[in-house]
Amino acid sequence: MGDRLQRGVMMMPKSTPNSTSKDKLTDAADCLSCGFCREGCTIYGQFGFAPVLVPLTRSYSQSHVRYPLLASADSSLNNLYLCTLCGYCKETCPNEVDFPSIVEHARAELRSQNLEPLRAHKIVTERIQRYGNPYEQSRDERNAWLKKLDFTPSGRDTVFFAGCTSASEVQEIPVSTAKILNQAGVKFKVLEDEPCCGGPLLRTGFATEAKQQAKKTLTLLKDVKEVITSCPLCFRTFTIDYPALVGTVPFKVIHSTQYISDLIQKGRIRLNEVHKKITYHDPCELGRYCGIYEAPRDILKAIPGLELVEQHSSRNTNICCGAGGGVKTAFPKLAMDIAADKLDGILAEKTGIEAIVTACPACVINFRDGTKKAARQLEIHEISEIVCQSMRI
């Protein structure tokens, strides 16, 4: 360990602001040789090496045997899309190399050179451009979750931004969140033509298209004072990416866990007992990228009867579920395998937990897929569901 630490600390990054993607990735490959990031890298755990570095080392990846590569004249370039961009490596790197941003930069540069992207990511981009969401849904289909409410959102200055994945694939999240806000007396509205925030485009290299999407979204939100979102990717895109893409965001952006935690502290939510032993999974976008660790835990700790057990690796060193960075879209089997391994690791700690609670729709979906592969009887919930159970609504 001492030799590895010395090698890592002495190997300072050589890239400059004008470095190409190849230069930056070469530097990252050197830095990763210290091995600090390997233990928590889900991709390294699946392959035993870092396939994202293959395009620069000229060694051909055997990953296509298990997870078919989908496009591109140079198939080794596709390994750049095997990274979930979880950010674990950035947290543990002794040289503080921002490897996820290097990968995103490389993906964007490939697109700028008009190289064909992965077909799955190209399809998602075309759907967002045509339908305003990656699931090819009409406006009525996109808003179907609203029909499950027994009230009509009628606020003016506050918008609840449901997010594409929640509204389309995990409707219990926007339904539960809206019920909580309504019960607490929060006046809010929902955009009838809510668009994709553009986050999926950024993560997969479609920077130009993401900027166009950001402008469309901001136009629809131009008259609001605050936006509440339950999707970590939407939250990150609004708070971190938009300022870099289009400038100042003219409204306050709050994640639903922050908002609900504040409502609890102010006594605007009444919580009843929920007897369940759970663990909380930190979504990468919400935790490592946006620094929100305590708000979800404050909510769970406020629920009487709920026993929260921390995992061995949590907060900034939590292990990714495997769904991020476009991996779930292009390599669904890989994403599911990562989730199953994560579940096995949680159960191996033998804490007797009954459920995993998280604050991300993508994590919910991937963990539920992982339970099928791992044949585990663990419940998977988004945090708003647990709050609704406690509120008896």
What does this structure look like?
This protein is of the alpha/beta class and 393 residues long. The chain has three domains: 2-112, Fumarate Reductase Iron-sulfur Protein, Chain B, domain 2 (Orthogonal Bundle); 129-262, Rossmann fold (3-Layer(aba) Sandwich); 271-391, 3-Layer(aba) Sandwich (Rossmann fold). Helix content is 47%, strand content 7%. The chain contains 20 helices and seven strands. The strands form two sheets. The chain has a four-stranded parallel sheet with strand order 5-4-6-7, sandwiched between helices. A three-stranded parallel sheet has the order 1-2-3. The longest helix is centred in the last third of the chain and has 17 residues, at 332-348. The model is unreliable at 1-22 and 56-73 (pLDDT under 50).
List keywords for this structure.
single chain, 393 residues, alpha/beta, Fumarate Reductase Iron-sulfur Protein, Chain B, domain 2, Rossmann fold, 3 domains, four-stranded parallel beta sheet, three-stranded parallel beta sheet, 20 helices, 7 strands, 47% helix, disordered N terminus
Q: What's the topology here?
A:
Elements: H1 2-10, H2 21-32, H3 42-47, H4 54-57, H5 88-92, H6 99-112, H7 119-131, H8 139-142, E1 158-161, H9 164-169, H10 172-183, H11 199-203, H12 207-220, E2 226-229, H13 232-246, E3 252-255, H14 256-265, E4 276-281, H15 285-289, H16 294-301, E5 306-308, H17 327-330, H18 332-348, E6 355-358, H19 361-374, E7 379-382, H20 383-391
Parallel strand pairs: 1-2, 2-3, 4-5, 4-6, 6-7
